[in-house]
Amino acid sequence: MVPSTVDDTEIARFPVIEVGGVVVATAIGTLELGVPNPQCPRGRAVRLANVITVANHRGHGLGTRLVGDVVEWARSIGADRVDLSATPDGRRLYERVGFTLTSAPRMKFVL
After folding, report:
1. pLDDT tens digits, 48-104
2. Beta bridge partners of residue 48, listed in sequence order
3. Domain limits, the chain
4. Would you tell me which CATH number, out of the four given (3.40.50.2000, 3.40.190.290, 3.40.630.30, 2.60.40.1080), belongs to the domain 4-96?
5. What's the CA gap between 23 and 89, in Å, rounded?
């Protein structure tokens, strides 16, 4: 179970973990460019999303491996931080690898 990727190493990372030729876990990391600011000095943030593990493969550290892969990729491309929106079920995993809860509220505009 070694993560493989389909990626454009400058703007996105899509690590997957296969078992027996079947994808059982995946994640998405995308580079977001913005204006440099005190929280993001280079204006380079990575958005981590869709960390998914098939139900019968959960609890074996696959999600942790995928998150680690995206975090290492973010470091390698000079990102300032990795942002995500966690579900209550995923929050423990993210906190365990070093993510912290922020006070920034999320808003959305549905088109």
Report:
1. 999 999 999 999 999 999 999 999 999 999 999 999 998 888 899 999 999 998 888
2. 29, 84
3. 4-96
4. 3.40.630.30
5. 21
